[in-house]
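Thread amino acids onto this structure.
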C-alpha cells in the first residue's frame, strides 16, 4: 500500500480544500478540516477503484512532506 502526500488549505471564508499532488484530479472541499479529510479519503478510494477496474496501477508517489521554520 502506497502513502500519498495530501495538501490541506484553508480558504479565506474558513472552508477547506485538499488535493494530492501525485494523483491528478483527486481533490475535496469541505466546511471543516475533519470533513475535508473524510472527503479526500473517499476521493482517493474512488480513484484507486477506478484504476483497478481498468487494470491500471496506482501512480508511484513522488512527493514527500516536510516543514521548515521561518
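Threaded sequence (70 positions):
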Amino acid at each position: 500500500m502506497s502513502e500519498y502526500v495530501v495538501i490541506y488549505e484553508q480558504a479565506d471564508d474558513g472552508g477547506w480544500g485538499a488535493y494530492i499532488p501525485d494523483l491528478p484530479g483527486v481533490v475535496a472541499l469541505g466546511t471543516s478540516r475533519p470533513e475535508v479529510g473524510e472527503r479526500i479519503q473517499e476521493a482517493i478510494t474512488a480513484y484507486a477503484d477506478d484504476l483497478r477496474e481498468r487494470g491500471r496501477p496506482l501512480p508511484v508517489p513522488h512527493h514527500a512532506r516536510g516543514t521548515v521554520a521561518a
